[in-house]
Amino acid sequence: MKKRIFITATNTDIGKTYTTKLLLKSFAARGLRVGVMKPIETGVIDGFYPDGSELLSLVQALNPEFLGLHVEDIVPISYELPAAPFVASNNKPLDLDILQTKIEKLEKLCDVLIIEGAGGLYVPLDEEYMIIDLIKIFNATALLVTHCSLGCINDTLLSKKALEDKNIPHIVAFNCKNEVKSFLQVSKPYFDKSGFAVFKVDDDIDTLSQLLYNLEIKNG
Prior knowledge:
Blueprint: E1 3-9, H1 16-29, E2 34-37, E3 40-42, H2 50-62, H3 71-74, E4 77-79, H4 85-88, H5 96-107, E5 112-116, H6 131-137, E6 141-146, H7 152-165, E7 170-174, H8 180-186, H9 188-193, E8 199-200, H10 205-214
Parallel strand pairs: 1-5, 1-6, 2-5, 3-4, 6-7, 7-8
Helix pairs in contact: 1-2, 1-10
């Protein structure tokens, strides 16, 4: 069974690429052929893809079938300005056909395709689409990466509700970085009291990969 997993976050600089790399390694360790794609990357200057290059290097080390690919194969659309694609592209209409074609090509090389988004769920891509729309269009399971600093309760619940409103199957993971102590004191008590499952990216990546692989896609 082919599986598409979309990595999104509550904002930018939360840890999507970091989490994506850990998931790739976790799936590969279980004997699955892994693949990766970042549909749109901004801040690409002089042919250097800050995220795309890292992702391609890792996936080629984990899955030999990706050795013949170039960074443009996993990052089909790129812009120089490090801004929302709507702004970086001067509001150029998003070409969904390019993205769908690339996904189908990459899926032939892997069992699990991890798709990394840009910024948060409501980053505008053009006048019609946001990042959250891509998850629905790609019929993917979502992993929402959130932070652990003060404010994470609000940010997490807002993004989770957005996914629920779109009927997108998802799991939430906390990327605590150096904020574990603060999280335990000021935010985790709420999640514990409300019965919210707290999975941490660093501690629970294998559990997360298993749950994401087993999570059913809900259409409609």
